[in-house]
Design brief:
- By secondary structure, the chain is α/β, with parallel strands linked by helices.
- It folds into two domains: about 5-165, Aminopeptidase; about 180-260, Rossmann fold, CATH 3.40.50.10700.
- Helix content is about 30%, strand content about 25%.
- The chain contains nine helices and twelve strands.
- The protein has helices at about 15-20, 25-30, 45-50, 95-110, 145-150, 155-165, 190-200, 215-225, 245-250, and strands spanning about 5-10, 30-35, 55-65, 70-75, 95, 120-125, 140-145, 180-185, 200-205, 225-230, 235, 255-260.
- α1 packs across α6 (about 155-165) and α4 packs across α6.
- The radius of gyration is 17 Å and the shape is globular.
- The chain starts with 5 loop residues before the first strand and ends with a strand.
């Protein structure tokens, strides 16, 4: 059984986050903290508000130039310069089973027909990116990718319910899940999303194809040690991925299998 204590964090500057928070069930309301800081720069609020033993679920908007309507989850941290919060070359601990459970809940709720969504939302796992820096583990759950979606109350209710229905004292629901990390693929990691939703794999940190040139042995060490439960497997998205042999060489220091998909 995989059990965690959670704390919900919301930026008052975030339209979607504030909308999501109003649909969080009463038994979880006491676990919500609000910050005046922008979510990706909320390092100080985490220090002030969040017990070090808790796992943070950030209720958030998602922004993208594509403006594609999306419901997303992802781990956080930076492979390289911290342009959008956090610290350079620094990842934040994530829980692969929590990410998987939240994404499965989004898929199930979206398919239920209960929500009168204003847009055709894509359900997606994103790669590791942006801040804030945090010592407690963090996952983001988001509505995107622009203001019309952030203001879609039914989409925000769905995201809230993905949190509400999570059994934090038994995330895997007795399933035989396998914690993994990933390399390659695009930002919305289409292949890894499919495996997250349709297989036993539960992804923690993911380094997208565009970030692979910034990889170092230290960052690979962080991907492994800051994914919980400890990853049993490394997955490569073989399509168009470069530097495979270099990454395999760095991974050879760890007792972890590598598989291409």
């Amino acid at each position: 059984m995989f059990t965690i204590n959670i704390h919900l964090l919301v930026s008052r500057e975030d339209i979607a986050g504030m909308n999501i928070s109003q649909f969080i069930h009463s038994d979880l309301q006491e676990k919500i903290s609000f910050t005046d800081e922008i979510s990706i720069f909320s390092d100080q609020s985490i220090v002030e508000f969040i017990p070090s033993t808790d796992v943070i679920i950030f209720l958030s908007r998602h922004s993208a130039q594509s403006l594609r309507p999306s419901l997303t989850v992802h781990p956080i941290g930076n492979f390289g310069t911290a342009e959008f919060g956090g610290r350079d070359d620094t990842l934040v601990e994530c829980h692969s089973f929590l990410l998987k459970r939240l994404l499965l809940n989004i898929k199930e709720l979206k398919a239920s027909g209960e929500y009168k969504l204003l847009f055709d939302y894509e359900t997606s796992l994103e790669v590791t990116h942006h801040g804030p820096f945090s010592k407690p583990p963090v996952v983001f759950i988001e509505v995107g990718s622009s203001e019309p979606q952030w203001s879609d109350l039914e989409a925000c209710r769905l995201i809230a319910d993905a949190v509400n229905k999570t059994q934090f004292d038994n995330l895997a629901h007795d399933c035989e899940w396998v914690s993994v990390i990933g390399f390659g693929g695009n930002h919305y990691t289409t292949k890894f999303t499919r495996y997250m939703l349709e297989s036993e794999f539960a992804f923690g940190h993911i380094c997208a194809k565009y970030a692979i040139p910034q990889l170092t042995p230290e960052l690979i060490h962080q991907m492994i040690t800051l994914t919980s439960p400890p990853p049993e497997l490394v997955l490569f998205d073989k399509k168009g991925m470069k530097q495979k042999q270099q990454i395999r060489t760095w991974l050879s220091e760890y007792e972890i299998k590598v598989q291409q998909i």
